[in-house]
Design goal:
98 residues; 5 strands; alpha+beta; two-stranded antiparallel ribbon
Length: 98
C-alpha cells in the first residue's frame, strides 16, 4: 500500500504564481512540509482551498479562498473526479459525541 500525506494550504502566499510547494510561505506550512517529508511517503499533496488536491510541483496562482469558510458542497467541487470515489474520513467522526 502506498503512503500518501496531505498537508493543508495556508493564507500566507507569495503575490505571484509559483510551484505549490513554494507558493505557501507561512512557518506553519513549512513545518508541515518538512514533517511530511520526514515520513518518507510515496507522495505529498496539498489540500488547496481553491484548487483542491495539488502536487507539490503544480504551478498555482495566488488566491484568497479559505477552507474554513467554504461549505462542504463547495469543498467537493475542487476535488478531482477520481478523488471523489475515495473515502475521506472526517477526523471528528473518530471521536464519540460529547
Amino acid at each position: 500500500m502506498k503512503r500518501v500525506v496531505l498537508i493543508p494550504c495556508v493564507s500566507e502566499k507569495l503575490p505571484h504564481a509559483a510551484l505549490a510547494k513554494d507558493l505557501y510561505v507561512s512557518s506553519l506550512f513549512k513545518f508541515c512540509l518538512r514533517y511530511a517529508q520526514t515520513l518518507k511517503p510515496d507522495a505529498i499533496f496539498i489540500l488547496s482551498a481553491k484548487y483542491g488536491l495539488v502536487s507539490l510541483d503544480q504551478p498555482l496562482e495566488p488566491y484568497n479562498d479559505t477552507l474554513n469558510t467554504k461549505r462542504d458542497a463547495d469543498r467537493r467541487k475542487n476535488v478531482p473526479a477520481q478523488e471523489t470515489r475515495r473515502k475521506f474520513v472526517n477526523p471528528q467522526s473518530l471521536y464519540p459525541p460529547r
